[in-house]
Amino acid sequence: MNAFPRSNRVWIAVAAMAVAVTACGDKGQPGGTGDLGQPVRLDDWCRRDGLDEALRQTAVVIDERAVRPGQGAELRTANPELFALVTGLADAGAGQVGALAPRERLSIYLAPTDGGAPRLILSGCLPAMSAQEIEVARAAGAAGTGGLSTYVTGGLGQELESARQAFQDAVLLALSKAARAPVPGSISAGGFTDGNLMSSLGSANLVIDGAGVPRFFLFTNLRTFPGGADRTAARQAGFAAAREAEVNLGGADVVLVGPGASSAGHGRDFAQAFFLGSQGRVLGWGGAAFNALPAAPVEVRTYTGEIVYPADRFPMRLVIGRDAQNRLVNSWLIVRSDTELATPIGGSLTCAEGVCRLVSDRGGLAQQWSPDPDPEPEFTPDLPLSGLRNIEAELTREYARGEISDPHVGSFEGAPGTRSLTFNLTPL
Question: Is the full-model pTM beyond 0.70?
Answer without folding.
Answer: yes
